[in-house]
Specification:
The protein is α/β, with parallel strands linked by helices and 365 residues long. The chain has two domains: 17-67; 100-359, Glycosidases (TIM Barrel). It has helices at residues 11-14, 17-67, 72-76, 111-124, 165-172, 187-192, 221-235, 272-290, 301-305; strands spanning 100-102, 128-134, 176-182, 199-200, 246-250, 262-263, 294-300, 319-323, 342-345, 358-359. The protein has an eight-stranded parallel sheet with strand order 1-2-3-5-7-8-9-10. Strands 4-6 form a two-stranded antiparallel ribbon. The longest helix is centred in the N-terminal third of the chain and has 51 residues, at 17-67.
Length: 365
């Protein structure tokens, strides 16, 4: 009797639905992994190829640059270095601080007002009273005995300082006296003494600046002697019991503006060194004329900053007072640090914080 055959179990019969789904998912995952691996290897290969190309390009450029000769300036010039040097220290100031206030000319006519002004000065802590003795128009504010007055009569408007007790009042307030004297900017003297004036080209008549003012000629012996006589007279007030401690000269300069039509007999105004030399010479004579009074020379700030315009400078010729009115230069700690100068300011308030200052107001009789 033949044997019965065992039934063959098919895969279909032994694989469940869950097993089949798991199988399908795993097969997809394996295929996806192979694809990702292939892409990754492709990207790596491409990146390596790109790196080789870039590296080759850079190396070629560097070789070309190294073979190019450098400019001569680059070879010989060292790279600039920035060195910050400390600013020089200011010279040690000598003597007591100079802190001033200004007395208007008309104030001296009124004893009460003058006394009030002195009291205010004491409250402000000032030690010097500034007064104009010769103004920018050439008028003297005191009664002069100079021989030149026979011609000029520059004291014709002098109503002030005939009573010396006013000076005594100033001194009783422990205030020194500073006399302001305008020099070559003197239209009165220049107009009446043509031989002492800057002349109009080709004539014997005084030249006038853009404001219509005539100027004294720094090379004129007549002009210099007149100005020195005024300085000597002011310095001699001490013989009358009135001490003038400082004399501040203004206008120690040449006129500005267009000088094409101006002539300066006795000198060459187009030569900066010659201009500077004649001004320095005048300052030396003025120092001798000032006697015991300390001489100061006031310069406009623009001239002080542009010494070349003077063909040098006047720094070592006298104590310099620089006109800083209307600017912040007086309080700039770097302002002319290599020299000790005295700033000229508009008011006592502008001088706060400064060791020395001169309060000055421009006025005419």
């Amino acid at each position: 009797m033949p044997k019965k055959k065992k039934p063959i179990k098919t895969v279909y019969e032994t694989i469940t639905e869950e097993d089949f789904q798991e199988y399908v998912v795993s097969e997809k995952a394996r295929r996806a992994m192979k694809v990702r691996r292939g892409l990754r290897m492709g990207f790596i290969g491409l990146a390596m190829l790109l790196a080789l190309v870039v590296g080759f390009t850079v190396m070629e450029a560097m070789l070309l640059v190294s073979e190019t000769p450098l400019p001569t300036e680059t070879r010989e010039t060292e790279p600039p270095t920035t060195i910050t040097e400390p600013l020089p220290d200011l010279p040690e100031p000598q003597g007591e601080p100079l802190r001033s206030f200004y007395i208007p000319i008309g104030m001296l006519d009124h004893r009460d007002q003058s006394a009030q002004l002195q009291a205010r000065a004491r409250n402000l802590g000032t030690n010097t009273a500034v007064m104009t003795f010769k103004d920018a128009n050439g008028w003297l504010t005191y009664r002069s005995n100079l021989i030149q007055m026979d011609l000029l009569n520059a004291s014709a408007r002098a109503r002030h300082r005939t009573d010396w007790t006013k000076f005594d009042m100033i001194h009783r307030a422990n205030q020194s006296v500073m006399a302001v004297v305008h020099t070559f900017d003197d239209p009165l003297a220049a107009g009446l003494m043509p031989e002492a004036a800057v002349l109009r080209y080709g004539t014997a008549e005084p030249w006038a600046d853009s404001d219509g003012n005539a100027w004294l000629n720094p090379w004129s012996p007549t002009a210099r002697e007149y100005l020195l006589a005024v300085i000597r007279e002011i310095a001699a007030f001490g013989q009358q019991g009135v001490r003038v401690d400082y004399i501040l000269l203004r206008g120690v300069t040449f006129p500005g503006g267009n000088l094409n039509n101006a002539t300066f007999p006795g000198g060459d105004h187009e030569d900066p060194e010659a201009r500077n030399a004649v001004l320095r010479s005048f300052i030396e004579e003025a120092q001798a004329a000032a006697g015991d009074a300390a001489l100061l020379v006031m310069l406009p700030r623009t001239e002080a900053e542009n010494a070349e315009a003077l063909g040098g400078d006047l720094w070592n010729s006298a104590t310099i007072a620089i006109d800083t009115r209307g600017t912040a230069a007086a309080h700039n700690e770097d302002f002319w640090r290599t020299r000790h100068v005295i700033p000229v300011v508009e008011s006592h308030e502008d001088g706060e914080g400064l060791r020395d200052f001169i309060v000055l107001i421009d006025e005419a009789q």
